[in-house]
Amino acid sequence: MELYFIRHAEAQTPSIDPRDPERLERLDRYGSGDYEGPLTERGREQAKDAGRFLARKGIETLLASPTTRARQTAEIALAEAGLESDILLMEELREARIGFLHPERDPKLARSMDRALMINETWRKITGRKVFLPVALYFVRLYMSSWLQGRTQGGESPDQVRDRIGRVLDRIAAMDLQGARIAVFTHGYVIYYLANHLVAPERKWRNIVSRPYVKNVSVTHLVRTRIGWALRSYAQPIETHDTFGFGGA
């Protein structure tokens, strides 16, 4: 059995006006991990790339997170590959629910987040681009570090996410699809944790250096062996996946 974990295609990010009275609440919902934005036009093209990948690999079994961006990626890929099979939605494949920071209750945090929003708005006006990368990375780091320190509210704990992701492999193994090739459309943190903590922790730092983050529609390839799961490639661009052999980064 071979598993191809594919991160969802590019999804729309919420448009947050720094002058909106509800800006911090909107931003907090986005950062919490429960965001349900659909794919962008670019994302839909990326999903078609994923469909062509399915056709090249002869993949006919598709699993997906029920989150809008992952489900839409799978649906478009399925159509592009010309397949008529159903997509099995698995709740365990959802992105980590990080929880809320409630900046409206913390004046210092609210000021910091407002400054970041204003910087992003200035960048948007000057360049026409929606997201200023340093601002995006600031928010990712803010939410992830707060979550790992137990300072978010209403989400899953890191241990709960680890256990949930572990059940994904157990559930797939129990399907007993000997020799099958399966595409799994899911999210960046799920793939990161699956590869670097559950399957190949000895390769964690090598993987992080070679792929600092899991890009949209990248491929992480796992194979089932007699002793468990083995990692063949990690977060590799989908268009170059065929060039890598066993042990590729």
Number of separate domains: 1
Fraction of residues in β-strands: 5-15%
- Give the termini separation: 20 Å
Structural class: alpha/beta
* Total DSSP E strands: 6
Could you give me the name of the CATH homologous superfamily? Answer: Phosphoglycerate mutase-like
DSSP helix fraction: 40-55%
Q: What is the succession of H and E elements?
A: EHHEHEHHHEHHEE
CATH class categorisation = Alpha Beta
Task: Give the averaged pLDDT, no decimals.
Answer: 89
Uncertain regions spanning at least 5 consecutive residues: 243-249
How would the global form be characterised? globular
Order of the strands making up the biggest sheet:
3-2-4-1-5-6
- CATH architecture label name: 3-Layer(aba) Sandwich
What is the CATH topology classification name? Rossmann fold
Largest sheet: 6 strands, mixed
Number of contiguous helices:
8
C-alpha Rg, in Å? Answer: 19 Å
In short:
The protein has helices at residues 23-31, 41-57, 68-80, 107-127, 133-148, 158-174, 188-199, 204-210; strands spanning 2-7, 61-64, 87-89, 181-186, 218-225, 228-237.
